[in-house]
Structure prediction request, 251 residues.
Amino acid sequence: GAPRRDPWAGQVRLARVRRVIAVGAGKGGVGKSTVAVNLALALAAEGIRVGLLDADIYGPSMPILLGITACMARARVTPERHIVPLLAHGLPFVSFGFFLGAGAPVVWRGPMVAKAVRQFATGVAWPELDLLVVDLPPGTGDVPLSLAQALALDGAVVVTQPARVAAVEAEKAAALFRALEVPVLGIVENMTGPFGRGGGRAVADTLEVPFLGEIPFDSAVVSDGDAGTPTVLTRPQSAAALALQTIARRV
Ligand code: ADP
Prediction:
């Protein structure tokens, strides 16, 4: 059945953060984290005060994408015991992983996630932000559901791949947001080209939500990601970066 709000869970409204949007996906490996990082940087380049929260507890790839090494990842704590975000290419950044440390459970369940998220969300000393971009875990299971519920999201972007077989998962992810009354801001098609084209637009049409654009497959996106130097910064004139900048303006 449709997910229901847990009346006892309560949502965390972050002080000092005007708008919180999530980047989600129906399944892993579609480029969700890459899109989240590049969208955030593209928006920051427009003068918007953007922060980044890596809430993908299954595979926190954001520190790598942002070039954060293990020693930098030791986040500072204020005297009030709030985590001070790191600065990654100028953006305040926190990974759920910093907070969890070695004590993190190997197997997460929804209620544990909800509790941890509430502690975490209230335990970060975010600066004044116009927008916080949250990288959610992929899929529609207990964990992404609990995260999406706990964080009081203002909107969600769903990333999918061109092949139409990917559409089913993307539609499920969008349905999850809708069930939580989180507006779906639109669908992004990533890796357009070798895997085909059109799946993202088909999902958007089916769901009657905006199609935000397609990002071409580009091997430089992979090398930029591995090097921690996101494409919108290092190759702002590439087709992939231009697509990301256009999508950012539509979010
Ligand atoms: P997810 O967060 O959905 O699991 P990632 O952002 O970690 O996915 O990306 C998965 C892989 O795909 C990474 O190696 C990344 O560099 C690569 N990738 C993402 N977007 C593109 C693209 N447009 N072209 C080529 N490779 C991409």
